[in-house]
């Protein structure tokens, strides 16, 4: 049981690093920003959009997990199809903003979606 927990934790970290791409240390996103807002943000070199569909086809996707099952589970249980993240700095670091981590403003991917990630891994293990 301990080993499985460690594996899930390590794989969650891999997801966050892979989804964040070049923004590995900056895995924050704006939870309440619209698709149009995300698209506008990527006109800046400081933001990028990473898709979960791309993650499941990447070398960073964990071995021993069915990628199609994972994607279907993730999306079917409310996971977002993509994350638009800042690439040049950690936004919100040291902030006293009341919207930080409350589900309606700035969020950390791992905090917001780590539990669903672990569930999808468990449900889709080969």
State the main characteristics:
126 residues; alpha+beta; two-stranded antiparallel ribbon; globular; disordered N terminus
Summarize the structure.
Residues 1-25 form the signal peptide. This is Peptidase inhibitor family I36. The protein is α+β, with helices and mostly antiparallel strands.
Describe the structure in your own words.
With 126 residues, the chain is of the alpha+beta class. It has one domain. Helices cover 44% and strands 13% of the residues. The protein contains 5 helices and 4 strands. The strands form 2 sheets. It has a two-stranded antiparallel sheet with strand order 1-4. α1 crosses α5. The two termini are 17 Å apart. The relative contact order is 0.23.
Question: How do the strands and helices of this protein lay out in sequence?
Answer:
Layout: H1 2-20, E1 28-30, H2 35-41, E2 47-51, H3 52-56, H4 67-76, E3 82-86, E4 106-108, H5 109-123
Antiparallel strand pairs: 1-4, 2-3
- Give helix % range: 40-55%
Number of discrete domains: 1
Oligomer: single chain
Please indicate the percent range of residues in DSSP E strands (runs of 2 or more): 5-15%
Shape: globular
- Terminal CA distance: 17 Å
